[in-house]
């Protein structure tokens, strides 16, 4: 089985879904067979790739993945769309071990053909995020360069450690990604220094700059590499893909 990356942060607006979409598209462009799973009830990863949410989530229905995944504009990238069904959100969010194990086993039997699987989790610390973490092999945390970044990071890490204890030897810390980076701001430089001083090599070398192209691309159903290939955001996500691929 390939690498399963959960893109997670309990805070909204930090570039979580944007990162999931652009990494998935980047891996596919690099020739890696990739699957993006939308577990966020907002379904932004689904709409960001030009698709519509489903009435019922395939993971709740236990439908075979090959019957449920949708094509995307990117060769080699498939999408397991999200659902806004309250019933499905509740079922997926049940944080008991049996529910997490059932989803993990359901996925495990059908992911052999993928090099990378990315799971876009909701902006919360609840059961749905914990289920996504339990089904993954790595967690990638985007954080915005703002005043409360470290506070939110500490809370998220506590949840990750709890999942690691429940499922020892499976989940690893993939890395922390600094997003909406503006080097001209003193606050950005302070957050950068503080995060790198505390977490060291866990923090990616690549940072994602503030770039309007990154924000606009999902409304066109595209990754930023296609929407604005010469933009700073496009270059940054390509560099992030290369950084992750270098650790295969």
UniProtKB/TrEMBL annotation:
Query: Which protein is depicted?
Result: Soj-like protein
| Keywords (A to Z) from UniProt | Hydrolase
Where would one find coiled-coil regions in this protein?
Answer: none
Q: Where is the signal peptide?
A: none
Q: Which InterPro entries match?
A: AAA_dom (IPR025669), DNA_Partitioning_ATPase (IPR050678), P-loop_NTPase (IPR027417)
Ranges of residues in domain AAA: 3-167
Which EC number(s) does the record attach to this protein? 3.6.-.-
From the record, give the transmembrane residue ranges: none
Q: Which domain of life is it from?
A: Bacteria
Database matches in Gene3D superfamilies? P-loop containing nucleotide triphosphate hydrolases
Which Pfam families would you find in this protein's record? Answer: AAA_31 (PF13614)
Give the organism the record lists: Anatilimnocola aggregata
List the Gene Ontology MF annotations in alphabetical order: hydrolase activity
